Amino acid sequence: MKLSTKIILLSFSSVFLVVLVGGFVLVNKIAEIMEDEMGKRALAIARTLAQMTVIQESVESGNGWEKIQAVAEKTRVATGVEYIVVVNMNGIRLSHPVADRIGKPFSGEDLAPALGDREYTSRAKGVLGPSVRAFVPVKKEEGSVQVGVVVVGILTPTFLSIIKSIRSEILIVLILCPSLGFIGSVFLARRIKEAMFRMEPGEIARLLEERTAILQALGEGILAIDKDCRITVANETARKILGLGDEVMGRLIGEVLKDSQLPKVLKNGVPEYNQERVINNTVIISNRVPVRVNGQVVGAVATFRDRTEIHRLAEELTGVKAFVEALRVQNHEHLNRLHTISGLIQLKQYHEAMEYIFNITEEQQNITSFLTKKIKDISVAGLLLGKYGRAKEMRADMEIDKNSRLARLPRRVDSNALVVIIGNMLENALDALKKCVHCERKIYFYISDRDNQLKIVVRDSGPGIPGQLKDKIFEHGFSTKEEPGHGLGLHMVREHVTAAGGNIEVNSIPGRGTEFAVTIPY
Prior knowledge:
alpha+beta; 3 domains
């Protein structure tokens, strides 16, 4: 059931139940009060009759019952009681509304105490219904000798008779009160639904679970406070970057971070973007915005990342690192060539100097011309040129297949993604050659957009990948290098290839090299 339906049913049922229970208790209380008042009334009538001289003198007389019956019936009719019975000390009736019962023993075990000079009231249930009876001793000779007992009985109202007498009032209450409860519950349910953005509790619970999972999965740190400056959200990344413990929820932000700017944003309601700060010896870039509900600032939230991580990822994704490396290699190579030419001129070896210039110029022009002609993406061409120079610097032979061609990119792969894929595979190949001491240092590269698919092949002559590590090389953070900051390259390659709907194959023979083959459909 919906929350509104539950609230309406609960409120209606509660009001209806309260009215029923309250009415039952009230009617019972009314019956008790009426019974008590009737008992006092019966006792007063019995006392009055017991004080009459005609009653006192006629109780022991042989024909006294005639006088007693006349007085008792006259009093009964005048007072409206159910019956008045006078008995002697032997328990014989001397008066009764039914004349045939005069002269017969009184029925009822509650007469005995009255014959012992006690007055009291008791409850009894007769043929006509429940009643309250008053017993008062009859005495003569100035109250020193008891000669009989006066019994006055009044019928008491039953629970049903009281309900019947006020049935119209009860019906009005039973209709009016639950109706008011129903109207109030409908109004309350609507207000609650509006406060919960028209969502059901199950939807809110699911949304909370999703939000918690999303916050924990985000690579950014998230820290939020309420209007009292107490921490309400701190995901795992935030605790890691800021060096916070697990027990931070509900604590004041000032106790956890001495120089936090969140209270400032909470106070003035002005967002701050791309703010660079140092917290716990960590340089972070943070965005801080106020949280508003119905136009009122009720909290503030900050999102931030480690600046070092941001810069590193930016370099990997945009290929800046590859281009900088290409420029560095070209500059280094250019200086070496200038030194060589300068030395040949100083030695007056002009012919050798000219020949050397022609050779290096031709080689550079050939590779540049080839890449410019066959590789239409300038980012990929620049990357290959840089890696080619880097290989030469390492005294390695990098062969770019003459049949390579890249005229267009697949629909789901952009220039940056291709730079990441090719750059990381070539960098791994160059790193593998560093471990190759006595073997040939060769790298083979091939790229093709033929047959409606992009195919990239990178092969090196390095030591290869051990069989037990083949399944781990694409895992995030896994690396065979001891230096920190590795273990991301091949993982990013696989992520980009998978996102583009392609696949990657690895063939490696220990001691004979490794080949990576990437295929991405157009």
